[in-house]
Each structure stands twice: as C-alpha cells, then as structure tokens.
Design brief:
3 domains; alpha/beta; 3-stranded antiparallel β-sheet; single chain; 11 strands; Alpha-Beta Plaits; 14 helices; Rossmann fold
C-alpha cells in the first residue's frame, strides 16, 4: 500500500487532487486543517490500483461527439427543398422546441403540428367512392391502378370506373391494368352514367373513379368536373406530382379545393429532389396529406404518409443523425406523435436566429399570397 499527502486551500480541491493522482480507489486515511490555512489530506492506495489509475491517465481522451444543431439541420433541409421563408420559419420554430438530437424526429414533430395526415382506405371499412382529380399528366390513372392493386392484395372487392374517354389511350391504359387484376372496368361519359355505375357497385368494398385531366384555370373544365362529382356521395382526391413550382401548385390546389377536395395524393416523389411545393400546397389549401407514389410500378410504391415518413423523405439518414436507413413508416396515426415522441412533454428550446436567417434567404422565400 502506498501513502501520499495532499495540501490544498479547500477540502474539495484536496479531494480532486487525490482522485487525479491515486484514482477513485484511494482510501482517505486522515484529514486535518493546517495552521497557516488550508487542509492536509493523507490517502492510501494499493500499488496495483495505482498502476491502473496511472495507465488510464496516460490514455488519450476521446474527443466529445459534436452536438447536433437540430434547428440548423432542419433549416438546411427546408432551404434545399425550396420552402418559402414564412412557412420555413414556422417549421424551424416548432422543430427547435423539441428536446431531441434527432433532426428527423424534430422535423416530423414540426410537420405534425402544422399539417394533417389522413391515408386513404384500402377497402377494409365502408367508404365513399374515391374520385381521383387533378390537372393533365398528374398520374391519376396509375394511382387508380395502384389503389386497386393494394385493395386486391388485401382480398377486398374493388370497382374501377373511368370517365377519361377524351384522352387517346386513357381507357386502354387502365383496362390493361384491371385485366391483370381480373377486375372489370366500367367506362362512363356523363354524371347519369356515373350514378348508374355507383349503383352497380353499391356493395363493393372500394370504388375508384379515374377522371380526365382538367385545367384548374378553365371555368368550363371545372364546371364539367363539378357536375361529375354531383353524381353521388363521393370523396374527390387531388393527385399532384412533386417538384412543381410552390406557388403555382398552391393555385392549382385552391381551384380543386373549391370542388370539395380535402386530401392530396402526391406522385413522382422518386423523381423529385425538392418537396417544398407539397408543404406550400397543404398549408395554403388546408389539405391533408394521404399517400405518396414513390415508384412507377403498379404493385408497389404507394406509401401512406405520416409526419415521420414525410420527414424521412426530406432528410436523408446521414443528415438526420441516423446510423442506418429507417424502416418503412407504419400505417396509421403519425409515428412522430405515437411511437417516436417522448412520454413526457418536451422541454422547449429557444429558436435560433441563425436558422431563421437561413430560411429567409431561401430562393423560394416569396410570401404566400
């Protein structure tokens, strides 16, 4: 056993000297106050323990992991996706208020606080017929095939109707898909015929209607579509591709919202690198996100959207602080609020002015009208 004495002005300083010199296994033998002030501590340690403590002291100290600035990561992502400044600032504030180092979780929580997510049904419960509407070339026919395939795989009865009799090859394209799934395709040209088709499918689990592309800025096109939607109790679903100009896409959505659209299905996500227009559409038109098409294949690539799934699309794993690629987002209520959110209420963090400044410098920082 080895003894050693330490002199210091205070007892806490003397104890720190003991730990630094002899290690945590040192035993305090005696303490006393010195006449001139200060204290004297005598400590003892086994020779073997001392050698271990000295060896540890010689080992290089590993540098601390750099702290992730969640607000900065989120601001960079929003800037890259071309989110307008006013909207980006709201999301940054919401993300910075969550006490977490996971940028993906922070962005998901922010999206959850500003947007509504309502994935489309797959036929398990009775629903109104889904009428797919949107501008020409948005991908409605392929989406109809994807929704039908998803319901067929779940052993649900499906009825597919098309009103797209104007576009060359429109009916043939959907007919090719339905033949593969052994489904009958009904072709109608006017609201009366559509009402009759609804009556035929009165007991079908899921009824899908593919419509012709409509110019949202043409009063004639919108009036024709309005008459079609009056054929029965239906739910129109807006189909829009990702990657559009943010404000142009918002104007398109507003035109379809006037017809009663409340949900938006996003296509061509696999071919878009900037998703800011989607956030702008949902914010201005007050539409709920439902699903996203991430592949051109009919049997796959239709993903129900929730806040965490959308955050993962906007934040690659390496930027979000994740070690591995995330699992597919579960269907149902947003994961950011259920499984991922801490049990207790997150502690608020002040939003950083630097991240707000970055959002304001976005190339798409025009204020929403």
């Amino acid at each position: 056993m080895r003894l050693k004495s330490f002199h210091a002005k205070t007892m806490s300083e003397a104890m720190r000297m003991v730990r630094q010199s002899l290690g945590d296994d040192a035993i305090i033998v005696a303490t006393r106050e010195e006449e001139g002030g200060g204290v004297r501590v005598t400590a003892a340690v086994e020779e073997e323990d001392l050698l271990i403590a000295q060896e540890r002291a010689r080992q290089p100290v590993k540098p601390a992991e750099p702290e992730i600035d969640v607000g900065e990561v989120v601001a960079d992502a929003l800037h890259r996706h071309g989110v307008p400044a006013a909207l980006a600032e709201q999301l940054i504030d919401a993300a910075s208020g969550l006490d977490t180092d996971d940028a993906c979780l922070a962005l998901g929580s922010a999206l959850d606080s500003l947007y509504t997510f309502a994935p489309l049904p797959d036929g398990r419960t009775a629903v109104k017929p889904l009428v797919l509407v949107g501008p020409p070339g948005s991908g409605k026919t392929l989406v109809a095939a994807k929704l039908a395939a998803r319901a067929v795989f779940k052993k649900r009865s499906v009825g597919v109707i098309t009103t797209d009799t104007v576009r060359a090859g429109g009916v043939d394209q959907l007919a090719a898909f339905t033949r593969l799934m052994k489904l009958k395709l009904a072709t109608v040209e006017d609201p009366d015929a559509l009402a009759g088709a609804f009556e035929v499918h009165r007991k079908t689990d899921l009824v899908l209607v593919d419509t012709a592309g409509r110019n949202p800025f043409s009063h004639e096109d919108m009036d024709d579509l309005r008459a079609l939607l009056s054929a029965g109790e239906v739910e129109p679903v807006l189909v829009l591709p990702a990657g559009l100009d943010a404000l142009e896409a918002a104007d398109i959505a507003m035109a379809f919202k006037a017809l009663g659209v409340r949900r938006m299905l996003v296509t061509r996500v696999d071919m878009a690198r900037r998703l800011g227009s989607l956030l702008t559409i949902a914010s201005r038109a007050r539409m709920a996100f439902c699903d996203a098409s991430v592949s051109s294949k009919v049997a796959e690539g239709l993903t129900p959207l929730n806040p965490l799934a959308l955050a993962r699309m906007m934040l690659p794993p390496e930027e979000a602080g994740e070690d591995t690629a995330p699992e597919p987002a579960p269907r149902g209520r947003p994961a950011a609020r259920s499984a991922a959110q801490p049990a207790s209420k997150p502690a608020a963090k002040p939003a950083k002015t630097a991240t707000k400044a970055k959002a304001a410098s976005s190339p798409s920082s025009r204020t929403l009208p």
